[in-house]
C-alpha cells in the first residue's frame, strides 16, 4: 500500500545518493525501480502527496457528482497549480495532469499502444518535422519490457501495428456489443477494426485484481486494475528507494564550473528549502514542469536556463487534438457501462503522402447520460469550466425529452486523435505576471494548430461521418474543429537529437550540456504520432535507466 502523507514526516535530504529522480509518474517510477533493483541508492522528489488507495472510492464519488469539477478528484488547482494559456486554442492544463505519487497515470485512460515505425522517420519519409535519433527497432525490446512492467492486455489482431515478437502479458478485453454494431458498418466500408491494448488487468496480474467494471477509468479506477505508476513507486521503495512527497523542486543548481548538476533545491510545506545532492539526476516531471524547472534554474552564466544552449527548451510542445462525433440509433447500444475503449482502427495511421497525417480512430462505449448534463443545458462537449452553464441550448422539458429518448442508452460515438507536427511556436514558457504559492513564475502553455493537423482533423471528421451514415445513426453532436480539446498527451519541449544546437538530449536521454542530467519524459519526443504515448514514455524511461546504470 502507498504511504499516507501524515506518516512520512522526514523530508530532509538523503546524504548523497547515487540518483535523484524528480517526479514519480510512469517515467520517474520506472527509472527509480529499475535503478533500485540494480542496487543503487535512489531518492524520488515528488511535488504532490501520496494518495491512499483506500480512498479511491471516495474519489470516484467526487467524479460522479455534477457539482464537482474534474480537477478536484485529484486535488488539482489553487495557487500551487496556477498556469496561463496564450495560444490560439485554450489549453486546460490542470485537467490534463495530476501532481502526486503516480502522476497523471492516476487518471489516464489506460490505452497502451506502440508508436509506428513511421513516427520515428517523419522527415525521411515525408520531408516533415525531424527524424528521431533512434528507430522503432532500437526501442522494440524496451516496448516489450514496458508491456510486462505495466501489465498490458492485448492480442495480435491489428494488421496495421508495428512488428512485435513477444505476446502480450494478458489476454485482450473482448469487443463490446456497441463495437459489434460498428463492425458491420466498417465491413461495408472496407475499414478494419481491432482491439486496443490496455494497461488494465483482464485477469489478476501483479498482485492486482482484474477489471471490475466501475466504468470511471477517467478519472479514477477504484479497484486498481488499471495500471498507475504508484505501483512502481511502491516497488522501488521495496528495493530501498526513498520517496519524499510534497517536495516540489524549485530549481536545479550546478557546480562552480557549470558542467554538472550539484543539487536539486526543493521546498517543503513548513517553508524550508533543502538541497538534495546526488551523483546523477533524472528529470521525470513531464513536458510542462521539466522545461519550467530548467528555465527557473537560469543563472548569470546561463541566462536562458539550464541545458538550453540550443535555445529549444520549452519549444515544440505537442498534444493530440480530439475529433469527436456522437449519434443515436433506433436500438439499444450499450446498457452496461464499460468506461474504456475496446476497439479502434489504425487503418488511417500509416500513409503514403505527407498529408493528411496519421489518425487513431476509437469507437466509444458511451455510458448512459449522467446528471451533469442537466447542469450544462444538454451539452455533451463540456470543457468543465465556467463556460459550461452557457454552452448548452436545451433546458427543461426539451432536455428531459432528449434524455428519455436515450434511455435505454441508444448512443454511439467515435473519437480520433489527429497527428500534430512539432511547431517551434508551440511552447511552454514562464509567465512572470503570475506566480505560484512559492513565488515562482507560472508556466504558460501556447498551443496552436497548423494546416497539417487541420487537414488531418477534417479527414477524420469525413471518415467518422461515413461510418455514422453507414450505421444509420442520427448525428447529435460533433466537436468543434476550430477549438478542439486536447487528449492530455503532453509531448515535446526537451526534444531528442544528435545535434546539440537543435536538441536538448541525445539518444541516451542525457542532456547535451550537462554530463549528469538525464530526462525521462514525453518531453523528449521529436514527433507526436497519433496514438497514446504512455507506453513509449515507459519504454524510453527503461532505456534511460539502463544508460544511467551504465554510468554508475
TrEMBL record:
Spell out the SUPFAM superfamilies in the cross-references: FAD-linked reductases, C-terminal domain (SSF54373), FAD/NAD(P)-binding domain (SSF51905)
Origin organism is: Haloarcula mannanilytica
Drop me one GO molecular function for this one.
Answer: flavin adenine dinucleotide binding
The family database entries (Pfam families) matched by this protein are listed as: DAO, GMC_oxred_C, GMC_oxred_N
- Tell me the cofactors it needs: FAD
Region annotated Disordered, chain positions:
371-390, 488-507
User: Which part of the chain is the FAD dependent oxidoreductase domain?
Assistant: 18-50
Has UniProt tagged this entry with the keyword Magnesium?
no
Q: Which protein are we looking at?
A: GMC family oxidoreductase
Name the family: Belongs to the GMC oxidoreductase family.
User: Can you give the residue ranges of the Glucose-methanol-choline oxidoreductase N-terminal domain?
Assistant: 99-321
Amino acid at each position: 500500500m502507498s504511504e499516507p502523507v501524515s506518516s512520512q514526516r522526514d523530508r530532509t535530504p538523503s546524504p548523497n545518493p547515487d540518483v535523484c529522480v524528480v517526479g514519480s509518474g510512469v517515467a520517474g517510477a520506472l527509472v527509480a525501480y529499475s535503478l533500485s533493483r540494480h542496487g543503487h541508492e535512489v531518492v524520488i522528489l515528488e511535488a504532490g502527496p501520496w494518495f491512499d488507495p483506500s480512498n479511491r472510492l471516495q474519489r470516484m464519488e467526487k467524479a460522479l457528482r455534477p457539482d464537482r469539477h474534474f480537477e478536484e478528484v485529484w486535488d488539482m488547482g489553487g495557487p500551487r497549480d496556477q498556469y496561463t494559456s496564450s495560444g490560439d486554442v485554450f489549453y486546460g492544463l490542470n485537467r490534463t495532469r495530476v501532481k502526486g505519487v503516480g502522476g497523471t497515470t492516476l487518471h489516464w485512460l489506460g490505452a497502451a499502444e506502440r508508436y509506428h515505425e513511421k513516427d520515428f522517420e517523419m522527415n525521411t519519409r515525408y520531408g516533415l518535422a525531424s527524424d528521431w535519433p533512434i528507430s522503432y527497432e532500437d526501442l522494440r525490446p524496451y516496448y516489450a519490457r514496458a508491456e510486462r512492467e505495466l501489465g498490458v492486455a492485448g492480442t495480435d489482431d491489428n494488421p496495421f501495428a508495428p512488428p512485435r515478437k513477444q505476446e502480450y502479458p494478458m489476454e485482450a478485453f473482448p469487443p463490446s456489443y456497441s463495437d459489434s454494431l460498428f463492425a458491420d458498418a466498417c465491413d461495408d466500408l472496407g475499414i478494419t477494426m481491432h482491439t486496443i491494448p490496455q494497461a488494465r488487468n483482464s485477469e489478476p496480474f501483479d498482485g492486482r485484481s482484474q477489471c471490475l467494471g466501475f466504468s470511471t477509468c477517467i478519472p479514477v479506477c477504484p479497484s486498481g486494475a488499471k495500471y498507475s505508476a504508484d505501483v512502481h513507486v511502491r516497488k522501488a521503495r521495496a528495493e530501498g528507494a526513498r520517496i519524499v512527497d510534497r517536495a516540489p523542486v524549485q530549481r536545479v543548481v550546478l557546480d562552480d564550473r557549470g558542467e554538472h548538476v550539484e543539487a536539486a533545491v526543493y521546498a517543503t510545506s513548513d517553508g524550508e528549502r533543502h538541497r538534495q545532492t546526488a551523483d546523477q539526476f533524472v528529470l521525470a516531471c513531464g513536458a510542462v514542469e521539466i522545461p519550467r524547472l530548467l528555465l527557473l534554474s537560469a543563472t548569470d552564466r546561463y541566462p536562458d536556463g539550464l541545458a538550453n544552449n540550443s535555445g529549444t527548451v520549452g519549444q515544440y510542445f505537442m498534444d493530440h487534438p480530439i475529433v469527436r462525433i456522437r449519434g443515436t440509433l433506433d436500438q439499444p447500444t450499450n446498457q452496461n457501462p464499460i468506461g474504456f475503449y475496446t476497439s479502434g482502427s489504425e487503418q488511417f495511421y500509416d500513409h503514403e503522402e505527407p498529408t493528411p497525417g496519421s489518425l487513431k480512430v476509437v469507437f466509444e462505449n458511451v455510458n448512459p447520460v449522467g446528471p451533469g448534463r442537466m447542469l450544462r443545458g444538454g451539452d455533451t462537449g463540456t470543457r468543465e469550466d465556467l463556460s459550461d452553464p452557457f454552452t448548452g441550448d436545451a433546458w427543461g422539458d426539451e432536455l428531459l425529452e432528449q434524455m428519455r429518448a436515450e434511455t435505454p442508452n441508444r448512443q454511439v460515438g467515435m473519437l480520433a486523435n489527429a497527428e500534430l507536427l512539432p511547431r517551434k511556436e508551440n511552447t511552454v514558457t514562464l509567465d512572470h505576471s503570475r506566480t505560484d504559492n512559492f513565488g515562482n513564475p507560472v508556466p504558460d502553455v501556447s498551443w496552436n494548430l497548423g494546416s497539417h493537423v487541420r487537414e488531418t482533423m477534417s479527414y477524420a471528421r469525413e471518415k467518422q461521418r461515413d461510418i455514422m451514415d453507414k450505421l444509420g445513426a442520427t448525428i447529435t453532436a460533433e466537436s468543434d474543429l476550430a477549438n478542439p480539446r486536447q487528449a492530455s498527451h503532453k509531448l515535446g519541449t526537451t526534444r531528442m537529437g544528435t545535434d546539440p544546437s537543435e536538441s536538448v538530449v541525445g539518444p541516451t536521454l542525457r542532456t547535451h550540456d550537462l554530463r549528469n542530467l538525464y530526462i525521462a519524459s514525453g518531453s523528449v519526443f521529436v514527433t507526436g504520432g497519433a496514438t497514446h504515448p504512455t507506453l513509449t514514455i515507459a519504454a524510453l524511461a527503461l532505456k534511460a535507466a539502463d544508460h544511467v546504470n551504465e554510468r554508475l
